[in-house]
Amino acid sequence: MSEQETGTSLETPVVSPAWIRIERARHPQRPYPMDFIERIFTDFSEIHGDRAYGDDEAVACGMARLGADEVMVIGNRKGGSTKDRVRRNFGMPHPEGYRKALRCMRIAEKFARPVISFIDLPGAFPGLGAEERGQAEAIARNILEMSRLRVPTISVISGEGGSGGALALAVSDRVLILENALYFVITPESCAAIMWRDSAQKQPAAEAMRISAPEVAAIGCVDEIVPEPAGGIHTDREAGEGLLGAVLKKHLKELKAMPVDAMVAARQQKFRNIAQFYTQG
Known about the structure:
Elements: H1 3-6, H2 17-25, H3 33-40, E1 42-47, E2 59-66, E3 69-76, H4 82-87, H5 95-110, E4 115-121, H6 128-132, H7 135-147, E5 153-162, H8 163-167, E6 174-178, E7 182-184, H9 188-195, H10 202-209, H11 213-218, E8 224-226, H12 237-256, H13 260-273
Parallel strand pairs: 3-4, 4-5, 5-6, 5-7, 6-8
Antiparallel strand pairs: 1-2, 2-3
Helix pairs in contact: 2-10, 5-7, 9-10
């Protein structure tokens, strides 16, 4: 029986270049923030709790060393098994997670330690409990306080950097993004559901949103793209993590050499100018 008679098609569905990047950013073998922290840093000592409500297991913070430098590291936790993912809320922080992160940033500032954050989340948790406990306020407070921290700050978008949930950990002197990572206001599926009332239009949405590393770098949302091994960092973790570690050390050295007032002023000016453009008539 022919293909026409059966009504089926043997053609391979066309996958857009933008969607290939999304699949790599979401690959199940891609390293999560805690994988980077465990392999790039040493002497990690975790700090728990926000001193107000509880300890959000979707966010990990602690003291560590990057080479000879003592730093504070922050990363969201997604979990490995299904049970662990549920316990960690699939890596989406509650307000107490952001408040724990801010508490640790203030500790870092007190002891003059740089802050390095790793981000791989589709957004902050939008549940009723999170909203009741002040999710929007917690995000806004982090954005405000990060903008004026008097220590060097570096953020790494390692997978998905989604909306205010990512920005609350990414108002930094240097924002780095891995080659196949994403930085967006909303997921392509949600964008397609809003614009076309059909989440199946996710590939055209991804193309239109311009959320890939080269595209967000072009409008100044990130400071440097960190290359990955061919096919994605999950194909050669050791090489990818080694390269990221070297880039982090380079930026940290540059920031430590800057006067504090000049560093803070440059950080604030950078975020005021992001995505601005001008035309002439």
